[in-house]
Amino acid sequence: MTLDKKVLLEELATPYQLPTGAVEFYREYGYVKLKNVLSPELLHYYGTLITDLVIRLNTLTKPMEERTTYERAFLQIMNLWREDEEAQEFVFSKRLAQIAADLMEVKGVRLYHDQALYKEPSGGITPWHADQFYWPLASPNTVTVWVPLQATPLEMGPLAFAEKSQSVEIGRDLEISDESEALMATQLGQFRLHETPFALGEVSYHAGWLFHRAGANASEQARKVMTMIYMDQDQVISEPRNEYQRADWTTWLAGKAVGTTPDSALNPVLFSY
User: Fold this and answer.
1) Sign of torsion, CA 234 240 244 247?
2) Which domain holds residue 92?
3) Is residue 227 a contact partner of residue 145, using CB atoms and an 8 Å limit?
4) What's 114's domain CATH number?
5) Domain count, the chain
6) pLDDT tens-place string over residues 189-203
7) How many helices (H) and strands (E) does the chain have?
């Protein structure tokens, strides 16, 4: 291991000091954006290997005009940590996991799963949705970190948030689709939209029930993003309520019994006080 790699691993493990008011902001608004969480050097190193994995593992090769709205939104590759040891180093970052625990105000967090989300040039919108529609989890103590691997101006389709929407029931029975985009575009008028660029090293955390979307990628470069989904380490598996939750129950929770903690090898504790 080179000295440079040691420095990167130390960065992934070093605690990040949340700015004053970040926890309160997250609690109220359902998301928070944090600057200078990861260095350019670290993002370049791990971004390169994550991109290589996405290229190797991607199976979506249809022309853009033949894809569904969901397929046009991004290339989606999940659980890279199980494919590559260095990808696991990034996914298992204690720095990123501790932020998740602190924002949710819980003792520790488990990994639900990771996913790379690459919006290709000319890639379409990511419709309004709430992630937890897909998850058979009893508690709302879930959060996703969204890590752009490059600076992400508005033309590339950065994540946008409907502030405070994590507390409403609207749209909780909708998958990511044209239908969810149409309904939420009208129903979310009561919520302020936060849509701003991401600087290099800036990341966001958003609650599982917060509604969010992303614009199309009008640039000539792929919008490369890595995400990790965290859950309270004491989370409980709930009875699946739709076909997607049934699939997630088997795939990401190892089919563990309803009412138990998801503590299989698929869902390791990444940080705990």
Assistant:
1) positive
2) 3-272
3) yes
4) 2.60.120.620
5) 1
6) 778 999 999 999 999
7) 8, 11
